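name: query_chain
kind: protein
chains: 1
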Amino acid sequence: MKQAQIGRIVGRLAALAMIAGVARQGWGSDVAGAPLQAVVGTAVRRGETPPLRTLNQSQPVPLTSAGATLVEIPRRSIPHTTTSLRALSVADPVVQSSHPKLSMPSPLTSFDGLYNVDGVAPPDSNGDVGPNHYVEMVNMHFCVYDKVTGTNLITPMKLSQLFAAGGFGAPAGTIDNGDPIVLYDHLADRWFISQFIVNVNPCHEVIAISKTGDPTGAWWLYDFTMPNTKMNDYPHFGVWPDGYYMTDNQFSGNNWAGAGVFVFNRVKMLAGDPTADYQYFDLYGVDQNYGGMLPADLDGPAPPAGTPNYF
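structure:
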């Protein structure tokens, strides 16, 4: 019985990942018996930038922040379930019984990236690597580097500056709240950068998609309003063939409000379609203890068609 219960929960989470296929029909009943409804949202605005290399000529990355004051972001508590595999006397299927073989190759090069330009703790450093570039974001600033030489190809800039270059005003073109994510979509040879905007109500998630594989070129810009009044804390994304998947930790004020799962329309966003949308499920009614979830992020060959993204 206990193993079957775990199997049903894991199976439900895997099935929830197939949001794109079930959202228009809704979902039956969740674990607690209440309907689990999909919410569809469309970008409130789409824009595009000129090539970054024409906006922001490469300058040395500053090494210090004179007079900067450290700003510490308060931690918010996530509840933890008292039910565990150990409590259920079930073996943890991912515990390793032997030391893995050390097969990681030596680094091709090493260079200094961004420091904490904004003076915010934690700095939330994030980045990804492509065939020719490394793109990094630390809090509100991002930078593009030549992967071989380590040279910065643009001067570090805020993500709001990128949106302002595309004609956006408030909030996307004027506010930076951080929690950044940088991904390289190797299936399409595109770059993905995102941050949340949480000092507005409702909150926003803004996403930039490079128009080519060159992150110093032009970008498509999207501003999405979140589907409710909950704060979309700790947003994390994964690249998958049928969408850009996102999880977040939701809060109402400082009170825990459950996990949210999203899929953004990857095909439309890559094409610069202004009708790009997302589909969302609120998992608070499924299990209030779900939190800190992460979507699978593909690195390597595409899986067989129809393979769901797993959380």
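note: The longest helix spans residues 2-16.
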